[in-house]
Design a protein that fits this description.
By secondary structure, this protein is α/β, with parallel strands linked by helices. It has three domains: about 140 residues, no CATH class; about 120 residues, Rossmann fold (3-Layer(aba) Sandwich), CATH 3.40.50.720; about 250 residues, NAD(P)-binding Rossmann-like Domain (Rossmann fold, 3-Layer(aba) Sandwich), CATH 3.40.50. It is about 45% helix and about 15% strand. The strands form five sheets. The protein has a nine-stranded mixed β-sheet with strand order 10-9-8-11-12-13-18-22-21, sandwiched between helices. A seven-stranded mixed β-sheet has the order 3-4-2-1-5-6-7, with helices on both faces. β3 and β4 form a beta hairpin. α15 packs parallel to α16 and α20 packs antiparallel against α21. The protein is elongated and about 120 Å long. The termini are far apart. The relative contact order is 0.07.
Length: about 625
């Protein structure tokens, strides 16, 4: 084990390199003269050899080719050796030119000797190091102990992934095959590894014990990615994902950066195409206010809006610590001078009026809201105070200070609401829509379902439960939800906001609804665990106000298309402004009584389709 744990002394490496050079010189002479060296050449051979070895020795000392750890030799070490030997050979050529004997028509060093010696020395020195490296790896990590890996993608990213694997984890893994869909590449070899078609993946997984399939292709089609993962999970093979190039360290991929694929990657959809010019015209050189700026949607809106060169972005939130984290995120960016971090409660009319008066925003994105269904079911007064009264305060101030557009972030739970949270969002929708009829400010509503990774969503909860060893808690075996990534939702919000003329409720194509229990099962498999053996799923029953299925439209609604295939306009009934004002004022006045039952009763009067489920407020539906 001494060979495996201690580095070879530098002087010994230098000595071996010099001996290699000496042997290469004699081999060059033997090859040049067909193993019959003329007597005249033998006479000069000792001094020629001494000179050449001296030049090589000095070049090795200057470039320190002997200083590297031989068992970790990399391609950069080989390039360094090649350049060093090339420099020495250039010196030999110059020597030849300077010492040419015109009378004898003779060079001190035959050019053929220089060429042959260059080739043999470069080959022998590199081969020596690779031989030592191979012996070390085989001694410490026998081939039979290596785990098989398959790389998806035979392009540039696939090559970089293989080299990163060889460099950083070649002791543990062996690339068994490379998968690609390009017919021109299938059947060929890439750095000695056979390239196979996608149809061979199941066969590979079935016949071999494969530890990982590494997805090296960037922007892989979501459906294809889902298919690959399903095939791998069937054979308990882990799927790893190569991060985008911008996340590589100093432009170089490290194997440690290649992480397990997560559930968010599998729920992604095709890239959204935005009307960038229109959005830029809408946002450039304007003051933008974002409420709830420290939340999942609000913070992503900040990131995306910042790329459209706004004059200023007002980040309004009452949560101090999350807002501080956003400030840290932008502290080293050029845009930081354009950001205003404002601690404020949207329900505080005096504070909000001061902000509007001082900064005069042109566009307001209203993302601040209470969204947790069971929590709001038990705190109806606060749900109405923030989601309804807070929205009313912001809307009225937007009119008073001539805001161009007010974009409200609503929820699919506002459709046929079964809970206080959803009903409060629907009332906020009704109010902002009614204001659009007579004022300069254009009020636009965007409505979508759950966003992946948002605070309080199922996925972070399941991930934490898996890390803690379970159990995973699911409310009901049949419960389904729509999911959308946070960046995707915000992109559609910007697109809808730019196309809105006022009064619209934009709904987003959320794709197919997902069964939550299936989501949990897939997360368990992605974590490399076995359901029922390593971790359990426990059904806890529907929570107060929770639906089995979410909706995006009312039963009596239909939709109108827009130029964007993933955005539609919901056709909803119009509400009389005076009646809406009367109802909202009446609802807000009940807040002072702190009577949740009275609050919910009034909400049901405003939103007749609000029917409580699994809630203490169901008795109000029975008496109506």
């Amino acid at each position: 084990m001494l060979f495996a744990t201690q580095n070879t002394p530098r002087w010994l490496i230098l000595t071996i390199d010099v001996l290699i050079c000496l042997c290469s010189i004699f081999l060059a002479y033997l090859l040049r003269f067909n193993f019959k060296i003329p007597e005249i050449e033998i006479i000069y051979l000792p001094q020629v050899a001494a000179y050449m070895v001296f030049v090589r020795f000095v070049s090795f000392l200057l470039t320190k080719t002997y200083a590297g750890i031989v068992r970790y030799t990399s391609s950069s070490d080989s390039i360094k050796i090649l350049l060093t030997i090339l420099i020495g050979s250039v010196v030999f050529v110059i020597t030849n030119i300077l010492t040419y004997n015109s009378q004898l028509n003779k060079f001190y060093l035959p050019f053929s000797i220089i060429i042959i010696e260059f080739i043999t020395t470069a080959f022998a020195m590199t081969a020596f190091r690779l031989l030592v490296k191979t012996a070390y790896l085989e001694l410490l990590f026998p081939t039979r102990e290596k785990r098989n890996v398959v790389i998806w993608g035979a392009g540039e990213s696939g090559i970089i992934t293989k080299r990163a694997l060889d460099r950083d984890a070649g002791t543990k893994y062996k690339v068994l095959a490379i998968i690609d869909e390009d017919p021109a590449k299938i059947g060929k070899k890439l750095e000695g590894i056979t390239i196979m078609g996608f149809d061979k993946l199941d066969q590979l997984l079935q016949r071999n014990d494969i530890a990982h399939v590494i997805l090296s292709v960037q922007n892989l089609n979501p459906k294809k990615k889902q298919s690959i993962v399903d095939s791998c999970l069937a054979y308990n093979t882990k799927v790893l994902n190569v991060p985008p190039m911008i996340k590589w360290i100093n432009g170089e991929l490290s194997f440690k950066q290649i992480k397990r694929i997560n559930i968010e990657d599998l729920l992604e959809r095709d890239e959204i195409r935005l009307d960038v010019d229109k959005i830029s015209h809408e946002l450039a050189d304007k003051t933008i206010m974002i409420t709830g700026a420290a939340g999942s949607i609000g913070s992503e809106l900040v990131r995306q809006i910042s790329s459209f060169q706004p004059k200023r972005i007002l980040l309004v939130d009452q949560a101090e610590t999350p807002l501080y984290h956003i400030e840290l995120e932008f502290s080293d960016k050029a845009l930081s001078s354009k950001l205003e971090f404002i601690i404020a409660d949207v329900c505080d009319e005096v504070r909000m009026k001061k902000i509007f008066e001082e900064f005069k925003p042109a566009i307001v994105y209203h993302a601040a809201a209470y969204k947790h269904v069971p929590m709001m079911e038990n705190n109806a007064c606060e749900a109405v105070r923030t989601n309804v009264e807070g929205t009313k305060i912001l809307s009225d101030l937007s009119i008073a200070y001539n805001v161009d557009k007010f974009i409200m972030i609503s929820s699919d739970k506002a459709v046929n609401p079964t809970n206080v949270m959803g009903a409060s969002k629907r009332i906020a929708e009704i109010y902002t829509q009614s204001l659009n009829q007579l004022n300069k400010t254009r009020f636009i509503t965007t409505r979508f379902g759950n966003v992946l990774g948002s605070n309080g969503s199922a996925i972070p909860l399941f991930r934490k439960q898996i890390e803690n060893g379970g159990p995973i808690t699911v409310t009901h075996p049949e419960v389904t939800r729509f999911f959308m990534t946070i960046p995707e939702a915000c992109q559609l919000v910007l697109e809808a906001g730019s196309m809105g003329n006022g009064g619209e409720i934009f709904i987003f194509d959320m794709g197919q609804s997902v069964k939550i229990v299936d989501l949990a099962k897939k997360m368990v498999k992605l974590a490399g665990l076995s359901l029922g053996k390593d971790i359990q799923i426990v059904f806890t029953g529907l929570r107060p106000g929770e639906k089995l299925y979410e909706e995006l439209l009312f039963d009596k609604e239909n939709t109108l298309p827009t130029h964007h295939p993933q955005i539609m306009i919901a056709k909803v009934r119009e509400n009389d402004k005076s009646e809406v004002n009367k109802n909202i004022d009446s609802l807000v006045s009940v807040l002072n009584e702190q009577d949740d039952l009275a609050i919910v009763k009034k909400m049901k009067e405003i939103v007749p389709e609000f029917k409580s489920q699994n809630s203490l407020y169901e008795k109000l539906d029975e008496t109506s």
